[in-house]
Structures are given as structure tokens and as C-alpha cells.
Amino acid sequence: MKKFYLKTMGCQMNDHDSEVIKGLLISAGYSQTDELEQADLILYNTCCVRENPERKVYGHIASYKRLKEAKPNLIIGICGCMTQQKGELQSILKQLPHVDLIFGTHNIHRLPELLSRAEGGEKVVEVWDEAQYEEGQDFRDGLPVERSHRVKAFVNIIYGCTNFCTYCIVPYVRGKEHSRLPEKIREDVLQLVSEGYKEVTLLGQNVNAYGKDLQTQTSFSSLLADLNTIPGLDRIRFTTSHPRDMGPDLIAALADLDKVCEHLHLPVQAGSSRLLQRMNRGYTREYYLDLVQQVRKAVPGISLTTDLIVGFPGETEEDFQETLSLVEEVRFDSAFTFIYSPREGTPAARFPDQVPEEVKKERIYRLIDLQNRISGEKMQKLVGTKQELLVEGTSEQGLVGRTRTNRQVFFAGPEELIGELVTVEITEASTWTLLGKAGQTKA
Ligand code: SAH
Ligand code: SF4
Ligand code: F3S
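# iron/sulfur cluster complex -> structure
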């Protein structure tokens, strides 16, 4: 049997695309391996949102040349967001001539045919500029999916992004916003529940914009309300929310719908209104802080997480101080922090006042220190509390489950609990993990 090695970079859209890619490869008669040397196909599902992971792709794939020398039939493939950028595609072709198979984010369903051509010795490069959607049909509909988890599953609800934040490449590589029909999403969730899944995470670059591009009168909050009625489904999560599109109906949905978990990932990016405007985020610092207040009032104890960028062009020390003070004020449960990385073709890459690399680094360390302190304090506060966990699987530290607020907890218990809701008491906390002791299971 032929074997594939699949490396996935980037966000949850890519994680889920990889589940489809795995499904297609398994249907094509391949099995998965973690050993590069064993592979007949090495495939990289890439991300281009920042430069660092891109460099990795070039480094890794260049080094696989020797594997190909040892095994001439080895197919090396690159897919995902990097291939959707014209300039990047050209440099892949030039710098990595030993790559045999290239496809993009809009033609994953074409993989079986493209792969068989590559197996026949052809160098295959097929990238589509945009997705082709037929009446209510998506190209991913009906494709086999090999899911990474047994208890929780990803469900796409909206593809693409049309926000054009000035730093971001995603709208250029993932295309226009395109919502799936609510009945298709419901069908997917019903199917998952019938297979035993207990939790779904609804995916989109901006889930709050769900439905705006559809003929049908619908919205993200009404989609949530609809899915909330599905028997057998325990939990609903979603990511990512854009603060600008976070209306009162969605806040009410978070508060009122019992399956919708108390966690909101609400990327703020920066604390200075001047920078937010230059980023084209469409909100001010004051708006964001007010929104956080409203959310916390409606859903006490909700976990708030965010994304932050340091060193955006023109960021002064004062601007950066505003990011620090916003982080102090909001006290996020955790945050992803990024150094601004200029992306070719985006407006911000052409802004004249780029911040020197040393300044960016120094700032991100300060920001990480602050957030780690806050995250640690918030975790400590959980010690002694009782939490409802959905048990996801096993780990070296015993069973692992997640709280409704999306925190991982390790505890001892029998494997039969996987897929069940369990109440544990938190006994120990560090910045990243919690340990717990099981009490009774919820019927
Ligand atoms: N759609 C989501 C996030 C997509 S990308 C949203 O709007 O929130 C994930 C994160 O990467 C972004 O939130 C941002 O913080 C970061 N990011 C995007 N482009 C970047 C760039 N050029 N440099 C550094 N970080 C970037
Ligand atoms: Fe990028 Fe902004 Fe779209 Fe998020 S909302 S994917 S940051 S352009
Ligand atoms: Fe990266 Fe593409 Fe996601 S660029 S962040 S993998 S949409």
C-alpha cells in the first residue's frame, strides 16, 4: 500500500482542508505515515499569513531532494495558501524544481485526478484563481473526510474573507466570502451527531458575516439558534469573530443558547485607534472595550481570547503602550501574539514607516510576558472550582477533556468516559494546563 506524509501549517481552515485531503488520499488507496522515509507522497498544506512558516516550507522541501534521489518515484507536493499567491507560486517553481504536484485551496476536490497524473510521471501544477460554486453546492460537499478527532469536528460555514485588513493576505488567497446554505450545514451536523460526535466548531475567517452573501434571509445568530436544537449535540463553538460584526443578536445567542460554549475568540490586533484605522479593522479601541463589557455582562465568566500584532508599520512606543494597556484592561484568557510580517501585494507592505526588526522583537517579548502573567493568574483562579468537561481522548497524563471555556484539563479516569460530559474539580494549574479530579458523570 502506498503511503503519504502530510504536513499541515496555518489555521483551522487548513486543518480541516487537510482532513478532506486525507480522506481523498485514503480513498485513493494510500495510508498515512509519520515517517518521511516511508512516504511515497510528501504533501505540504501551506500557510502564507506570515513569512516564517513560508521559509520553513522552502527549507524542508529543498532538503527532501535527497529523499527523491534515493526513491525516484517519490511524489513531492505543495498545496494550500502559498500556492494561491502568484509570486510565491513562481518562486516555488523556480527554487523547488523537484516538486511534482501543486494545487490550490479552490481545487482540493481535483486531487485524485491530479495525483494519478503525477503518479504517471507528469509534473502537475493546477491552481484556480477562485472557487467555482454551483447553485447551493460547494466543491467540498460530499468529499470523504478523515477526521482528526472522535468527539469534536470542524464544520465550514463560510469560506473566504472580504475584509481586506491592510496587513493580511488571506482575502487574496482564500477568495470572496461565500456562505454555505443553512440546510447544508444542518445536514452536516446531523450526520456528525449520528456518527457520535458531540461537539462542532463552526469555521470561517469571519463567522459573524455568515449569511450576508446569501439570498436566504439568515444570519450567524439564527444559524446558531437552529443548530442549538439538534438533539445529541452537546457543544457548539465557532471561530473567528470580527469585532466589527459582533451585533447584539450574537451576544444574546452566546448568552441564551445552552449548547453555545462560553468562549469567544475576538481578535483585537492592536490597542491604538490610530493603528486600528491604518489596519482597516473598522473599529476603535473604545468600541472594542465597550464590546468586551457588553459580552461579559451578558455572559459572566466567558473566556475571551485574541490575536495581537506588534510592529505594524508606523507603530510608535506610545501605540504599543496602548496595546499593553488594552491587554491589562481586558485581561484576556490567552492571546496569540504575532510580529508584523509584510506580505507582498497587501497595502501595509508598501507603507513607508516599517518598524525595525529589533524593535518588533523587543516589543513582542514585553507583550508575551504580560499576557503570560495574566493567563497564569486566570488559570490559578480555577483551582478548587468544578468544571464540566467533554472528554476528548487520552494523553500521557491520563484522560484529557475541555471545559466549556475551551481549557484543557487532564485527569485520571477510564477510557469509557471518552465522548462523555464529566464534572471535575480543578486541583492544579499552570500557565497552560489544568489538572483535575473526576466527580460524577452527567447523565
Ligand atoms: N480571520 C481572522 C484571522 C486570520 S489570520 C481574523 O480576522 O481575526 C490569524 C491572525 O494572524 C490574525 O488575526 C492576525 O493577528 C495575524 N496576522 C495576519 N496577517 C499578519 C501579518 N501580515 N503579520 C503578522 N500577523 C498577521
Ligand atoms: Fe485577514 Fe482581516 Fe480577513 Fe481576518 S478579517 S482573514 S485578519 S483580512
Ligand atoms: Fe494561513 Fe491560509 Fe489560514 S494563509 S492562516 S492557512 S487561511
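# post-check
Residues 357-380 form the longest helix (24 residues).
The two ends are 43 Å apart (CA to CA).
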